[in-house]
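Subject: design request, 71 residues
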């Protein structure tokens, strides 16, 4: 989940450039910015659940994803 969220955020950041280059591998360009933001939120929730299931929810590694939850 973490890697997917990271990649989609990167795609959101690269939307304008990738659209100019007609990139076909940008999630945000293919599905739209709103859908991309929603996908990031879903991946963040999946990451949080996985960390909780592994009893790692109160560790520094679990907190890394919080950077992306401000979208």
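Subject: RE: design request

Done. Sequence follows.
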């Amino acid at each position: 989940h973490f890697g997917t969220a990271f990649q989609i955020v990167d795609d959101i950041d690269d939307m304008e450039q990738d659209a100019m280059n007609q990139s076909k591998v940008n999630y945000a360009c293919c599905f739209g910015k709103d859908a991309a933001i929603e996908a990031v939120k879903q991946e963040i929730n999946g990451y949080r659940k996985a960390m909780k299931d592994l009893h790692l929810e109160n560790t520094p590694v679990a907190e890394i994803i919080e950077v992306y939850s401000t979208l």
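Helices lie at 2-13, 15-20, 27-31, 33-53, 60-63.
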